[in-house]
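Predict the 3D structure for this chain.
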Amino acid sequence: MSAERKTSRIHCLTVNPFQENTYVVAAPNGECVILDPGCYDAREEKALESLIERESLRPVRLLNTHAHLDHILGNAFVGRRWNLRPELHPDDLALLKAAPVYSEAWGIRLEPSPEPGNFLAEGDQVVFGGITLRVLFTPGHCPGHVVFYNAVEG
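Done. Predicted structure below.
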């Protein structure tokens, strides 16, 4: 008899003036991680909240692949709504802290992101609901860019 394989569900919302993709990766038990919340306004915040409620999900981590403005616009909302702090690579901390300056230059409203709760590094594992995502450090697009790889599902 084989062991039950836990398979994640991936949801995507395209949001904000930059058309950024916000992802929710859900485990079978309902735990989920929110990646790059780019929610810009109340309608987009409601769309994310509705998705999570409709799917009976429980956010347990807020992950940023990098700290470009379009990927962190919703960090404050997610932090407030689900009591989560962003996790990102330390090489992008300066970008995260400079986001208010960039938002003003772009004419984009920004509620500043909460301080990071954790820093991510190459080889770290993000574990939730039996799902494991491996952190891969992929600088280039940003100094601290990371991606998340599920070795079981590819």
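The two ends are 23 Å apart (CA to CA).
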